[in-house]
Each structure stands twice: as structure tokens, then as C-alpha cells.
Amino acid sequence: KSLEFLAHPLALTIFEDRVYWIDGENEAVYGANKFTGSELATLVNNLNDAQD
């Protein structure tokens, strides 16, 4: 399942206990708990030409 959300990561940032990344193939922004990888959420999708 994790490969679905990590197809082509372009950028990564960490804020408090969360990690966020842009995926270029899925054209979306995802977030998850940085310690466990749980609480995975799609924050934004259908981005055109997602960039750092």
C-alpha cells in the first residue's frame, strides 16, 4: 500500500510530528505521522505539474 503513496516523491518537509511530501506521479500532497507512518492522509490531489 505504501508504494501507492510513494510512486515519485518530489519534495519532503517535516513539521512537528508530521511528515509531508509531494508525489509527482499521483499529483498529490500526502502527510503521515513521522514516527510511525500511520495516520496517512491525502491533503491535496489533482495537482497539475506538482513541483517543489
Give a quick rundown of the structure:
The protein has one helix at residues 2-5; strands spanning 9-15, 18-23, 28-33, 41-44.
Relative helix content: under 10%
Which sequence of strands runs across the widest sheet?
1-2-3-4
SSE succession = HEEEE
Give me the count of strands.
4
Model regions low in confidence, pLDDT < 50 over at least 5 residues: none
- Indicate the proportion of strand residues: 35-45%
Distance between the termini: 24 Å
Output the number of helix runs: 1
Q: How many distinct domains?
A: 1
Pfam families: Ldl_recept_b
Protein name: Very low density lipoprotein receptor
Organism: Sus scrofa (Pig)
Keywords: Lipoprotein, Receptor
Layout of SSEs?
Blueprint: H1 2-5, E1 9-15, E2 18-23, E3 28-33, E4 41-44
Antiparallel strand pairs: 1-2, 2-3, 3-4
Q: How would you sum up this structure, described in words?
A:
This protein is mainly beta. The protein has one domain. It contains one helix and four strands; from the N terminus they run H-E-E-E-E. It has one helix spanning 2-5; strands spanning 9-15, 18-23, 28-33, 41-44. Strands 1-2-3-4 form a four-stranded antiparallel β-sheet, with no helix packed on it. Strand 1 (9-15) and strand 2 form a beta hairpin. The longest helix has 4 residues, at 2-5. The chain is globular and about 30 Å long. The mean pLDDT is 88. It comes from Sus scrofa. This is Very low density lipoprotein receptor. InterPro entries: 6-blade_b-propeller_TolB-like, LDLR_classB_rpt.
